[in-house]
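Possible regression after last week's pipeline update?

I re-ran a chain I had predicted before the update to compare outputs. Posting the input and the new output here so someone can diff against the archived version. Not blocking, just want to make sure nothing changed silently.
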Amino acid sequence: MRARIALLQINGELRTRCEALEQVLADAVEHRHAAAGVHSTAAADTAALARELVRVAVLADRAAGATWQEIGRPHGLTADAARARWGHLRLLWPPERPTP
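New output (post-update):
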């Protein structure tokens, strides 16, 4: 259940970041100036969230009873390769926030 909630939260974050990146790119096309580095930062943030989405999806699939073969197939991985890549995962979402 926690993994499914995390999937929804990460998906929402990813969608928000993609919409922001889309706006930055639209502004660039219309010759508006964006702050230096904003494009790369937005893309890197999106890539990091996408990796976390995959991690949590794997955890949710395992909790639902999916085999490593079923998990690896859409990623072009064998069951052994999927287990080697993600078999050690634990749910880390939401990220811990430092206590003030």
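Follow-up from reviewer: compared with the archived run. The helical segments are 2-29, 38-63, 68-72, 79-86. Marking as no regression found.
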